[in-house]
Amino acid sequence: MQDKSLGNIIDDTTIVIRINKGLLKHGLFSSIKVKVSEGRVLLIGNVDNHEKQLTAEKIAWQQKEIKEVINEIRVTPIKMTSMLDVTVDGMITAEISTRLLGKRNIKSINYSVNTVDRVVYLMGIAQNKAELKAVIAIARKVKGVKQVVSYVRYRHSKLRH
C-alpha cells in the first residue's frame, strides 16, 4: 500500500493527464515526461530551446492544486536521440526498479524512477533516512548511471502537508 491517500493518487493522476494534454497541444508531449507526487510536479526530458522548456513549466503551473514545479528539462542542441540512448535509459530505470522490488527494507511502491541521458530521477515518499539512503545507493551502483537526483520526501515530513 502506498503512503499516499486514494484522493492524492487520483489528484496526481488528473494533474498528469492535464499537463500531458497541454504538452501535446504544444508539440512537447513526446520529449517531456511528467511525474507528480502530492501536487509536486517533476518535468524531465530534452528540448531544443529555452522557450519550449518555459512553455512546459507554464503548462504545469496552470494546473489546479500545484504546490511545486521542478523543471529538470534539459535544453540541448537539436540531435536525434539514438535508440541506443533511449534503450540504455530504459534499462537503467528497469534495473533500479527491479532491485528496489527485491529489498525488504524498501517500500518500492512509494518510488518513481525515471532516467534521462543516464541521469536517474527519484520521486516519492521514503519511510526514513535509512531507506532513502539505500535507494540512492542502489541507483548509483547500476552500470551507466551518471548521476542520481532525488526529489523524495520523508513520510512524516511537514513539507508533505
UniProtKB/TrEMBL annotation:
InterPro entries membership: BON_dom (IPR007055), Lipoprotein_DolP (IPR051686), Transpt-assoc_nodulatn_dom_bac (IPR014004)
Top-level lineage group: Eukaryota
BON domain boundaries: 11-77, 88-156
Pfam families linked: BON
Record-linked SMART domains: BON
Protein name: Jg12666 protein
Organism: Pararge aegeria aegeria
Name of encoding gene: jg12666
